[in-house]
Amino acid sequence: MKPFTAKHATCTCAMDSPLDRKKGKAPSRKKSKGYYAKVKKGRGTGSKAGGGMTAKGVAKYRRDNPGSKLKTAVTTPPSKLKRGSKAWKRRKSFCARSRSWTSERGKAARRKWNC
Hints:
- The protein is an all-alpha fold.
- About 25% of the residues lie in helices and about 0% in strands.
- The longest helix has 12 residues, at about 85-95.
């Protein structure tokens, strides 16, 4: 097997193999870390059904990222939202963006947001 060598004489890519590089210290948003609710078929809406990050997950993410604007879902029924309010606009924007989501998790998120 050939040793890992640089493509060019001035290139430093041979000094850092891809396996030696370290990843950044960005916080994890993985499902396995427990920051997302599990998707359960036919179990209602919201975190019970797995429709996005839980309040605990959002709080942890905001602690790890000062200045983050991440928010939980607008779960208020559309009939209770005042037309033109910030929450009404967030919900409308999310529903428009997520219209094409067809996965189980996407459908759960759309149920949680009352789309």
